[in-house]
Design a protein that fits this description.
Radius of gyration: 17 Å
Largest sheet: 6 strands, antiparallel
Structural class: mainly beta
Number of helices: 1
Number of strands: 10
Order of helices and strands: HEEEEEEEEEE
Helix content: under 10%
Number of domains: 1
Strand order of the largest sheet: 1-2-3-4-5-6
Strand content: over 45%
């Protein structure tokens, strides 16, 4: 008699529904999958900032972005990290900017160079990327996270 096998991770579909989206942009014809989480205040501090962590792949590299948004001061702080297979994660760059002016971060490493520009449009934080990774060029826009504004 065959037994039904229970899903050992029944909440994975729910988690993915809340923390994953497929971007409109393409990576060499493949969809770009964006994963995002919001970190809460560790000790329940009642301030008007939010911290997000977003990751996605562009070609062979995983991009991880840590975003801190101060809704009172209308400032966005961003740190970019990269990860290639079999190598440790590395810091690409960090910077800050305003809601109205956005943030453009320029960087030049052996494996990745170019610019990431973060901007707010339609109550979402967007990323415009124009990068070269291991000799291949990528350019586009990704809708990252909805903002409570």
């Amino acid at each position: 008699m065959a037994h039904a096998v229970e899903d050992p991770h029944p909440d994975i579909d729910k988690w993915l529904g809340n923390h994953h989206r497929v971007a409109d942009a393409k990576d060499g014809g493949n969809d770009i999958h964006v994963f995002a989480i919001e970190h809460g205040n560790l000790y329940g501090a009642a301030d008007n900032t939010k911290t997000y962590e977003v990751s996605f792949h562009l070609g062979p590299i995983t991009i991880r972005i840590v975003i801190v948004i101060d809704f009172t001061k209308k400032i966005i702080y961003v740190c970019l990290y990269g990860k290639l297979p079999f190598l440790p994660e590395f810091n690409i760059t960090c910077g800050s900017g305003s809601f109205t002016g956005g943030i453009t971060l320029k960087f030049n490493f052996k494996v990745i160079s170019g610019t990431f520009t973060f901007y707010i449009k339609d109550k979402w934080l967007w990323l415009h990327y124009d990068v070269t990774i291991l000799g291949k060029h990528w350019k586009g826009d990704i809708k990252l996270i909805p903002l409570p504004i």
